[in-house]
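User: Hi! Is it possible to get a structure for several chains at once, not just one? Here's what I have:
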Amino acid sequence: MSSKKETAIEQDDNLNEIESLDREFVFGTWSYQSEVSPTQIVRAEGVRFTDAAGNECIDLSGQLMCSNLGHSAEAVAEAIASQAREGAYFAPGFTTEARARLGEKLAEVTPGNLSKTFFSTSGTEAVEAAIKIARFYTGKQKIVSRYRSYHGATYGSISATGDPRRLMAEPGIPGMIKAPDPYAYGSTLEPMQSLDYIEEMLMLEGDTVAAILVEPIVGSNGILVPPDEYLPRLKELAHEHGALLICDEVMSGFGRTGEWFGCDVFDVTPDIVTMAKGLTGAYAPLGATIVTDEIAAHFEDEMFCHGHTYSGHPVAVAAGLAAIEAYQEDDLIDHAREVGSYLGERLVELETDHPSVGDTRGVGLFRGIELTKRKDEREPFGRREHKISKGSTTVDEVAAEAYEQGAYVANMINTLIIAPPLTITEAEIDEAVDALDAALDVSDAAMDA
Ligand SMILES: Cc1ncc(COP(=O)(O)O)c(C=O)c1O
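Assistant: Yes, the chains can be modeled jointly so their relative placement is included. Here is the combined structure:
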């Protein structure tokens, strides 16, 4: 039998001691482990962080599109510390002031008659709860979701996910049906044609669908903004066929779009909304699934057959309450709308200056830059299959160069995802856009002749 030392992975001379330890003993997510190369962050303040090698970066993606309050939200840090001192954990059958008040706050900031919340610890779990609630409430099983979507990592949520990460988990749970997306730049269907397709699907399924689950503005699959009339019509279609509309606001929620939620951009009240990420500004892991009065009432005398040890974890809900108070007191939703339109203008300038920028799109501080190697044909550098294959693409190289230039930007398939903390200023946007401007020379140079 070989010892742990003998089976240890190859050393990478570019990693410091901590990074090497991490590389050896901790799984990197969604990766071939031989390609994992962790970067140790040692400090973070405002919209910036510093790594162990001394590189300082503007966090242009708010880490994983979740650090909506930036890295210095003192009130949230204080709420966490003080709840941990007063009592870090009580079972879900007990409550705390923060849990009750956060439930009330979520009813206040979400649209319409969304009123009662189930708390979990992640976006994945928020979606799992939404799927179960929709099935319990309607008595039906099927969930329609879309191909260009991400809804989570566990079996239910990855089965609802349309992106290629689902393929590794197939066949998944039964009853999960996929539909096309409103993706004007990259789909063979016009956005509203994709909705006609869903209408046809619902008709052919003969009213056996429990819910349609969508990100109102698609996040990690490329920042896809539907036409204004899409989401209202989708809700009508769902209801005409006895199905619920679930909006997954895990990424698009909490001011990201310049409104509280993505569905607010389209004036739609879904039947169920899932949240996580910005709910605590990423200061603590917390997921939430809120439902309308009618759905809440159903469970008065039907069992709500769901729960977790950490449902409503006191420290996490204290973080959530403090985060929402910070959004409100610092007027961050309005700020995101204002600086978001400035960001949009600056990205259009990049599109004008760089032939490899095929499209820029988005709302508020939720924007994407899609790259192309042949502009006329909209030929992408990164394809869906690259999401689960080894190696890197030109899009990864652009992101790496942006980091060198002082801006951290996440990239997914063929799109750079721009989703900075809502606290960002126009001057910081300018600084980050300068870094992107330099980095996009990499994709310009890699275009087909
Ligand atoms: C729209 C959406 N839903 C669900 C999830 C899953 O959330 P988590 O990673 O917190 O489990 C994500 C994560 O990126 C997401 O973007």
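The first helix runs from residue 4 to 7. Residues 1-8 have pLDDT under 50 and may be disordered.

User: Great, thank you!
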